[in-house]
Write a structure and sequence with these properties.
218 residues; alpha/beta; three-stranded antiparallel β-sheet; 8 strands
Amino acid sequence: MFSKLLVANRGEIAIRAFRAAYEMGIATVAVYPYEDRNSLHRLKADESYQIGEVGHPVRAYLSVDEIIRVAQHSGADAVYPGYGFLSENPELASACAQAGITFVGPSAEVLELTGNKARAIAAARAAGLPVLSSSAPSSSVDELVAAAADMTFPLFVKAVSGGGGRGMRRVSDPEALAEAVEAASREAESAFGDPQVYLEQAVINPRHIEVQILADTA
């Protein structure tokens, strides 16, 4: 069991993690950019450290180097990403492993597969599962518009990384595709640090079944 936990997140997500750690007798470390210096989560941890550059609060929470720097400086022997931000980023899990720090979550290998929708689709195809038609991922508007020529509208433009509906647009009119790709790509880069998006066939009036995948190091 680890003794000091750094939570690489903010707000309610971080506060809940701090509460759980406190109940387990684990010391806690908060991180915050300058813009979050008055945020409540900073006050709920035993220690807190500023990260990132002034004027770029989201980028701070997405910086693997900054998270590892603070973890090593504070003596934290575990990092918990919460959800959003770096929670699906295999680089953080890999960096923790290299630094001898416990990553509270799936291995880098699992995140590499499931954290990237394009790779997850490829794995599903390789396993013989039926999947919707989709394009290769790209941050190029021209490449994605060209790929749409062989697809049936409506389509979804989807961020390759992250989730929660960020970086997603439904497009019914081919004339609106370029603008949708640009908007989704900008949002994906802002939210997840990855501008790549892909196209996927939209299903009309679907019955939605969502599968949650749980993975740990055990």
